[in-house]
Design a protein that fits this description.
Length: about 475
C-alpha cells in the first residue's frame, strides 16, 4: 500500500538484476470477469513456478503460493527469499502469481489500453485478483494430478492482505496463510488515522530528536521559499529535479514519500528492495542531517538526508517525480475505488499536518478516473470493526507477522486472536522483513521469528496429512 495521489509512485532508478532463484515463467489464460457470465474476455496472467524441490503429487508435496502485489512479480520473487529458501525443507513447489493489471499480466493487450479509462480498469479489484489466484492454482493442481497437495499462501504488504483474505474466502483452496506486514485494519476508523505517520515519525525520533525537529521545521521553510519570486526555481535546483517544480507541495510530497519508505525499509542490513540503501538507513539520514553545524541552511541538510533514500549510490543526476520502474501505477485506481486507507498527520508527527479528506480525494479520483471511492466496501467484503471476531469464529491458520518499525504495522493484527490466528510481533522489524532473503547479518530475533513461522506451517501440514 502506498499513498493516494500522483506521488504514490516509487522513484527507483535501478533495474531488476538477474534473478537469484531458478524458476520457469508461464502464462495462464485467465478470465477477465469472474463474477459475470456475459463475455468471453480473457487475458494472459503471468506466474513463476519452480518444482525443483517438490516431492510430487504421490507424496502430496505442498505448494507454496505467493499472492502477487501491486507490481512486477519478478521484483517480489527476487525479494521474497524466505519462500524459496524453505521450499527444500518442506519438499514444496513454489508459485509466484502476478496480480492482474501489473507487470506483464495486462488485459486488453497492454498497459496503455488496460489503463485507458474506468471501463477498461473496472476489473482491477482485489476480489477479481483473489479469484485469479484460486482458479490458477486449482487448474495447475489438476494438470499436475496434484489435487490432494495442500496449498500454503504467502504475501507481504498488500500481498499479505490478499493472502489473509484468500484464506478466509477460499479455505477449501489453501490450508493456511502467512500474511506479513498486512494492514487489514487500515480502513474507515478501525485504527486512528494518525497511526502510520506517528510510527514513521517515532522511527526518526528514536534515532535523533534534533533530526526529527529539523525535518518537522523544514515544511514551513519549503512553503515560504516556494512563495518567493524565484523560489520554485531555487528549490528545483537545490533538490536536483529534472523538471521545474510546479508547487512547493510537489517537493513536500516527494520528501514525505521518501521518509515514509525509509521507515518501512529501515532494515538492519543494506538492501536495494525499494532503493539502494545502507543498513539502518534512518540512522544514516539523521547522521547526515545532524552532521552540519548550527546555522547551516535547513534545506541543504534536508536534501543531504533524504538523498540516503533517493540517491545513496550517488549515480542519479536528477530526480523525476513520476518514475514507476516496478509498474505500480494501477494502485492509484485501487486507492480511488476500494482500497481507501485513511491517513492523517497530527501534532505528534514530523510530517506536514493534515486531516484525511475523503471529499478532496474523491474529487481527485473523479478528475483522474471518473470514479467515486467506496470507503466501506473492503470492510463489507472482508471484515471491518468485527474482523477479529470473524477471525475467531470462522478463521484458522493465519499468521500475521509485523515489525513495529514498519508504519503499516499499526493497521495490522498485533495480538493473537485464537490458537490458530497468530500474531508474531518484533520490536525492531520493518516492512515484511521476515519474508526477505536470509543474510549473514540477520539478527537472532529474526532467525527465531522465521523458525516459529516454519513450525506453524509444519503444524498446518501435519494436521492436513
Amino acid at each position: 500500500p502506498r499513498f493516494l495521489g500522483k506521488f504514490s509512485r516509487l522513484n527507483n532508478f535501478g533495474s531488476l538484476r538477474d534473478p537469484r532463484y531458478e524458476y520457469e515463467t508461464r502464462y495462464f489464460d485467465q478470465i477477465l470477469d469472474h463474477f459475470s457470465f456475459s463475455g468471453p474476455e480473457r487475458f494472459r496472467q503471468r506466474y513463476l513456478i519452480s518444482t525443483e524441490h517438490w516431492t510430487g503429487p504421490d507424496r502430496q508435496g505442498p505448494i507454496f503460493l505467493y499472492c502477487g502485489n501491486e507490481g512486477d512479480i519478478e521484483w517480489f520473487a527476487e525479494n521474497t527469499g524466505f519462500v524459496w529458501e524453505i521450499a527444500p525443507r518442506f519438499g514444496a513447489m513454489v508459485v509466484f502469481t502476478e496480480h492482474r493489471y501489473y507487470g506483464k499480466s495486462m488485459p486488453y493487450g497492454g498497459e496503455e489500453e488496460a489503463y485507458k479509462n474506468a471501463t477498461t480498469l473496472a476489473h482491477l479489484t482485489s476480489e477479481q485478483a483473489l479469484a485469479d489466484f484460486a482458479i490458477l492454482i486449482t487448474d495447475l493442481k489438476k494438470n499436475l494430478s496434484a489435487q490432494s497437495c495442500p496449498v500454503v499462501l504467502f504475501g507481504g504488504s498488500y500481498g499479505g492482505m490478499l493472502a489473509a483474505w484468500m484464506r478466509l474466502k477460499y479455505p477449501h483452496v489453501a490450508i493456511g496463510a502467512l500474511a506479513s506486514s498486512a494492514p487489514v485494519l487500515q480502513f474507515e476508523d478501525i485504527v486512528p488515522q494518525e497511526t502510520f505517520y506517528d510510527i514513521a515519525s517515532n522511527d526518526f525520533r528514536r534515532e535523533s530528536v534534533s533530526c526529527f525537529d529539523t525535518i518537522k521545521a523544514s515544511w514551513d521553510v519549503i512553503e515560504t521559499e516556494g512563495q518567493k519570486v524565484n523560489g520554485l526555481s531555487y528549490l528545483t535546483e537545490l533538490f536536483r529535479f529534472c523538471k521545474k517544480l510546479e508547487s512547493a507541495d510537489d517537493l513536500s510530497n516527494w520528501l514525505s514519500s521518501g521518509y515514509s519508505y525509509l521507515a518501512m525499509a529501515d532494515y538492519p542490513y543494506a538492501t536495494d528492495f525499494l532503493m539502494p540503501m545502507p543498513k539502518n538507513p534512518i540512522k544514516e539520514v539523521c547522521r547526515r542531517i545532524d552532521s552540519y553545524p548550527n546555522g547551516t541552511d535547513i534545506l541543504r541538510r534536508i536534501f543531504e538526508g533524504v538523498s540516503v533514500y533517493y540517491n545513496f549510490t550517488g549515480n542519479v543526476d536528477c530526480f523525476k517525480l513520476d518514475d514507476d520502474p516496478h509498474g505500480m501505477n494501477g494502485w492509484n485506481w485501487q486507492a480511488c475505488t476500494e482500497m481507501v486507507m485513511p491517513l492523517s498527520s497530527g501534532t505528534k508527527s514530523m510530517f506536514p499536518g493534515y486531516d484525511f479528506d475523503l471529499d478532496s480525494d474523491a474529487y481527485w479520483c473523479f478528475q483522474s478516473f471518473r470514479v467515486t471511492p467506496r470507503p466501506t466496501w473492503i470492510t463489507t467484503e472482508f471484515g471491518g470493526h468485527g474482523f477479529k471476531n470473524a477471525l475467531r469464529w470462522f478463521g484458522s491458520n493465519i499468521v500475521f507477522s509485523n515489525g513495529l518499525l514498519d508504519p503499516w504495522s499499526g493497521g495490522s493484527v498485533l495480538e493473537n486472536v485464537s490458537d490458530t490466528i497468530v500474531a508474531l510481533v518484533t520490536e525492531k522489524g520493518a516492512h515484511h522483513l521476515d519474508l526477505r532473503p536470509a543474510t549473514v547479518e540477520d539478527p537472532d530475533w529474526l532467525l527465531d521469528q522465521r523458525e516459529i513461522e516454519m513450525k506453524l506451517i509444519q503444524g498446518w501440514l501435519d494436521e492436513y496429512y
